[in-house]
UniProtKB/TrEMBL annotation:
Lineage summary: Eukaryota, Viridiplantae, Streptophyta, Embryophyta, Tracheophyta
Protein name: Uncharacterized protein At2g39795, mitochondrial-like
Gene3D superfamilies: Mitochondrial glycoprotein
GO cellular component: mitochondrial matrix
Domain of life: Eukaryota
């Protein structure tokens, strides 16, 4: 009996904390807060002392450096090419006339226009493209000559009086000759898409073909015109190329 009471007192003593230890009261949710707070603790980052700037370049700075380097290369190459073209063979000032024709240069465009009046009431307009094709050139026995023959397309439009029909002759200009490709007649207004345009020029009678060449030659559309167009377009090609490079250069130089 006494031993049982002693045992109960010992158990009670072990169950109660000693009076010398502080009592900790845990409120609802306090343990979760402490746990989550401790989980967010991260190692201390190195903070540079005042006045010290980090030397690691930013991605933006590196990107700007690369962009600047690329633009610098483009500008250098464009300036060199422009200088080379101007020093090697600078383009000449375009002429305003060829024989009886006035020449409208159309700067920045890929074609020119020639005009003249023939006789009392005939008006001739020629629209010619820049070089639009080439074929392999035939060389002499020594193998000397150009590698290709450049091609120019042009259209001759002939009208009589104000409201007359239009005779339209489509041609090719080779370096020293012209070639008729097709001819048709249509109203002075816009040509309808369903208009019958006639046979190809090569399908016509040989004598009729010769007569049409004579018809054009009488009006100044001949082999000399072909030579002029090739010389003019070679100069225009160089002029437009230099202008194009200069336009690209100015765009790259613009600040963003």
């Amino acid at each position: 009996m006494a031993r049982a009471r002693s045992l109960r007192r010992l158990i009670g003593t072990l169950a109660d904390p000693p009076s010398c230890l502080p009592k900790i009261q845990m409120q609802h949710g306090q343990h979760r807060f402490l746990h989550s707070s401790s989980s967010r603790v991260s190692p201390k980052k190195h903070v540079p002392p005042p006045g010290c700037v980090s030397r690691a370049p930013s991605r933006t700075y590196i990107s700007e450096m690369r962009k600047s380097a690329f633009e610098g290369t483009i500008l250098r190459l464009l300036r060199n090419e422009i200088q080379y073209e101007l020093e090697r063979s600078p383009p000449a000032k375009p002429v305003g006339r060829f024989g009886p024709f006035t020449v409208d240069d159309r700067p920045g465009e890929q074609w020119i226009r020639l005009k003249r009046k023939f006789g009392e009431n005939e008006y001739i307009n020629i629209e010619a493209t820049m070089f639009d094709g080439a074929i392999p050139a035939s060389k002499n026995a020594a193998g000397i000559g150009e590698d290709v023959e450049l091609h120019i397309s042009f259209v001759v439009k002939i009208t009589k009086d104000k409201d007359s029909n239009v005779l339209e002759i489509m041609c090719s200009a080779w370096p020293d000759s012209i070639e008729i490709k097709k001819l048709l007649v249509h109203g002075c207004q816009r040509m309808p898409s369903s208009l019958y345009t006639g046979p190809g020029f090569k399908e016509l009678d040989d004598e009729l073909q010769d007569a049409l060449y004579d018809f054009l030659e009488e009006r100044g559309v001949d082999d000399e015109l072909a030579v002029f167009l090739h010389q003019y377009m070679a100069n225009k090609d160089k002029t437009e190329f230099i202008k194009w490079m200069d336009t690209v250069k100015h765009f790259v130089e613009m600040k963003t």
